[in-house]
Amino acid sequence: MEPIKVLIADDHPVVREGLSAMLRKEQDIQVVGEAENGAEAVDKAKELRPDIILMDLRMPEVDGVEAMRQIGAVNPDIKFIVLTTYDNDEYIFKGIEAGARAYLLKDAPREDLFKAIRAVHKGESLIQPAIAGKVLDRFAELSRQAQGVEALSEREVEVLKLVAKGAANKEIAAELAITESTVKTHIQTIFQKLGVSDRTEAVTEAIKKGIIRL
Question: How many CB atoms within 10 Å of residue 115?
Fold first, then answer.
């Protein structure tokens, strides 16, 4: 079998050199190049066509997230492993949303990195347990939000859309051919379901949950 071709993208020379030296000892892994920022990673991905890119997230010129998006748009077969020092939620989810198939912290044991490269090359995913807990928490939150979307009836969504446009109760009643009293009832129910106390909060929360779009 041909070795797994890996491109290393990191703005710290010591990190790149250390990773390269470590990976070159593995017979089934071939380091085909290095990039010191996201822009260079995009260029070298086109030139070298690696199987996997080890991608740092915070780099100058173009960060790792944007680099993954650009590379993925042109070369969807290239897989990404995020290798970073950042374990906060913002970086985790931006990396995963951009296409990362594995997410490792730089202090992870080298065996975890080797395992991640081989797993991702086979089409699998690998996320460290500490990171996985945060991912599961995020999915739980998304699930709760989805339940909130389903809780609103079709009529309540219609009312909410008109509220977002700045329509008064009387205007909403005329638009939907219902009484003004019914409109008030719908709005109070919407407030309760979204956990808000006024029209502005209702619209803001509905946009966050994806119920309506401006």
Answer: 16
pLDDT average, residue stretch 116-128 = 91
Residue 93 and residue 86 in contact, taking contact as beta carbons nearer than 8 Å:
no
Please identify which residue in the block is written with the tokens 């042109």: 74
CATH hierarchy code of domain 4-135: 3.40.50.2300
- Domain covering 152-208, topology: Arc Repressor Mutant, subunit A (1.10.10)
Ramachandran class of 61: left when φ > 0, alpha when ψ lies in -120 to 50, beta otherwise:
left
Give backbone dihedrals phi and psi of 25, rounded to 5 degrees, phi first: -80, -15
Q: Which residue type sits at 164?
A: A
Q: Which residues on neighbouring strands pair with residue 29, listed in sequence order? A: 4
Task: Compute the half-sphere exposure of residue 120: CA atoms within 13 Å on the CB side of its CA.
Answer: 29
Q: Which amino acid is present at 131?
A: I
- The whole-angstrom separation of Cα 16 and Cα 143 is 39
Tell me the residue type at 138: R
In order, the DSSP letters of 9-53 are E-S-HHHHHHHHHHHTTSTTEEEEEEESSHHHHHHHHHHH--SEE
Locate the domains of the chain by residue range. 4-135, 152-208
Put simply, whether the predicted model's pTM sits higher than 0.70 gets the answer no
**Chain CA centroid to CA 54, Å:** 17
**DSSP element (H, E) containing 163:** helix 154-164
> Could you report the per-residue pLDDT of 63-91, keeping only the tens digit for each?
999 999 999 999 999 999 999 887 666 77
Q: What is the DSSP letter of 3?
A: P
